[in-house]
Structure formats: structure tokens, C-alpha cells
Design brief:
Radius of gyration: 25 Å
CATH topology of the largest domain: TIM Barrel
Number of domains: 2
CATH architecture of the largest domain: Alpha-Beta Barrel
Shape: elongated
Distance between the termini: 55 Å
Bound molecules: zinc ion
CATH superfamily of the largest domain: Metal-dependent hydrolases
Oligomer: single chain
Strand order of the largest sheet: 7-8-9-11
Structural class: alpha/beta
Length: 301
């Protein structure tokens, strides 16, 4: 009995070795009785599905240690990626499933995930790119991309502090950023129009910017960038005076017009942005996963 891969639409790979018990039923039982469980959707044999706090579904599959890699690969997906792999396998007279890699009756791999790929003459691939969008061809040609690692991220360009709806002071944000090895962080509290988020009016914003200047003087090899998350109202007015956007200011527009419908949001309606000297925008797309599409804005400069 091996580790327990957790399948969350294949997008997360926080698989943890929860148990090495020999009794499959016991593992399922322990899983469905975890304190985090809000609802048990299914339970029996070597499978269980639970709902935990926040409505997240977690599926459990208990597999033999010898099949762990094959199961991990299978449940990570995506479906398209796996269908493509199975097609390649078939052409080579190989069978892939969640239990392993088989040539005829003989099992030729499956304990480790890379064995699944190796059997097909392919290198192991990062889970994030398994979408059948060319990664299998790239792997075959030896041109798999090198993905960005968390350790390579140099800073964060959109952080809220206690001044609006964040939970930390600027100094605490800086300390946390330095712990992450960052070199810069942009403070982007809400502007005054967002009352529910305790948005900053002109005088509070001016004070915050003075504080940032003061802190920057003391900091070595780290820079706090000034930002503001402005709203663009229906009438095209930006909710923070543009003089505060100059130089190192990072504007982060939330467009009421866009929220009303992307077709109403014409980038040409926002000459203030171009004239402001604002450095950057983020989030630049206005996208809300699953519910809102991209803005039409083009962020060329
Ligand atoms: Zn924000």
C-alpha cells in the first residue's frame, strides 16, 4: 500500500503519504472520519470522496505501492493529455492505466510516475503543462519548457495593507516579502470609492506615500513601490487624483464599465491613464476566473 495521490481535477499535486497501513478499508475509514470532513459523498472498497470546509471535494484512491506512479499520473490528467499518451502507447503495443504500464500480460512499470513516460520513450513532464497543448510533441523533440520556480519570483506588484482591506502594516509586508527573497513589493490599497474596503482618500493616500518614502530610505536592496487600486466609474472618472500616479506609482484599475460589460469598456475612453505617468497595471486583465473575461485593453507600454 503506498501513498495516497489526491486528485483535485488534476490541478493540485499535494499528494501526501498519509498511511502505510496494509488494510485498505481502514485507510478509507480514517479518511472519511477526518475532522475536516463536512460530507462524505461516497465511500467503499478502495475509494472515497469527501467534501471539506470551503466546499472542496477530495477524492481518495488507495492503490498498491507498485501502482502509485501510474495512479498519480492517471489522476493528475488532464484527460486530453492521457488520451494522447494512451494513443502513443497503443501504437507501441503498450497498455496504460491507473494500475501500471503493461506489455501484454507483463507489467513493465508504474511504481514511479516517470516510468509511465519512460515506457513511451518520453521524459517526465511537469504536471502544470499536461494539457495536450503541444507538450507531448515538445517532450519528444527534447524542447520542454523550463517552468518558473517560486524561488525565481522577485517581487509582488499588488499588495494590500491594513490601510484598506489587508491585514498587515507596510513594514510587516516588507518583512514577509524579504523572507520570500523578494526585492520589491508594490503597495496597492484601494482608493476612496471602495468604501467597503476602507479605501484611501486623498489625505490618507498622501500620508501612506510619505511613509513609503521614509521606509525606503532605511531599506537596503529592497524597494517599496507606491501603488493605488483605482476604480474607473461608469462616467469614466478615475477615483484617485492622477497626480498621485506619477513616477513610481502603480495603478491598478478596476473598471465599473468593464464589470457592466466588456463591450462598454473602450480603452480609448481612458486618456487619463496614458497622461498619468502611472507605471504599470495589475491585475491587468480584469479577469475573474470562471465568471469574467479579459479586458480589451492592450498593455503595450
Ligand atoms: Zn487588490
Amino acid at each position: 500500500m503506498g501513498g495516497i495521490p489526491s486528485k483535485d481535477e488534476g490541478k493540485h499535486r499535494r499528494h501526501r503519504h498519509l498511511s502505510h497501513r496494509r488494510d485498505k478499508g481502514k485507510i478509507v475509514q480514517v479518511f472519511t472520519r477526518l475532522p475536516e470532513v463536512k460530507e462524505v459523498l461516497a465511500s467503499g472498497g478502495t475509494k472515497a470522496s469527501i467534501i471539506v470546509e470551503g466546499g472542496v471535494q477530495i477524492d481518495l484512491r488507495v492503490v498498491e505501492e507498485d501502482s502509485y506512479g501510474a495512479a498519480l499520473q492517471y489522476f493528475t490528467g488532464s484527460k486530453e493529455h492521457n488520451v494522447h499518451l494512451r494513443g502513443i502507447a497503443k501504437a507501441q503495443g503498450i497498455k496504460l492505466n491507473e494500475y501500471g504500464v503493461f506489455k501484454g500480460e507483463k507489467k513493465i512499470g508504474g511504481k514511479e510516475e516517470k516510468e509511465v513516460y519512460q515506457a513511451l520513450g518520453l521524459p517526465w513532464m511537469e504536471p502544470e503543462i499536461r494539457e495536450d497543448r503541444g507538450e507531448i510533441e515538445a517532450a519528444r523533440d527534447g524542447r520542454l519548457p523550463k517552468l518558473i520556480r517560486e524561488s525565481e519570483i522577485k517581487g509582488d506588484l499588488h499588495v494590500h495593507t491594513r490601510s484598506s482591506d489587508g491585514t498587515s502594516t507596510i513594514e510587516e509586508v516588507v518583512k514577509a516579502a524579504q523572507r520570500h527573497g523578494y526585492q520589491y513589493v508594490a503597495i496597492c490599497d484601494h482608493s476612496q470609492s471602495l468604501k467597503i474596503a476602507h479605501g484611501l482618500d486623498e489625505s490618507r493616500l498622501a500620508k501612506q506615500m510619505e511613509e513609503i518614502d521614509r521606509l525606503n530610505e532605511k531599506l537596503k536592496e529592497f524597494r517599496i513601490l507606491k501603488g493605488i487600486e483605482v476604480d474607473i466609474l461608469m462616467e469614466g472618472v478615475w477615483t484617485s487624483p492622477t497626480r498621485y500616479w506619477k513616477n513610481s506609482i502603480w495603478s491598478s484599475p478596476r473598471s465599473q464599465r468593464f464589470q457592466a460589460g466588456p463591450e462598454k469598456d473602450d480603452p480609448e475612453d481612458h486618456p487619463g491613464l496614458r497622461k498619468s505617468g502611472g507605471g504599470c497595471s495589475g491585475p491587468s486583465t480584469g479577469r475573474l476566473l470562471g465568471s469574467r473575461i479579459l479586458t480589451k485593453w492592450k498593455w503595450m507600454k
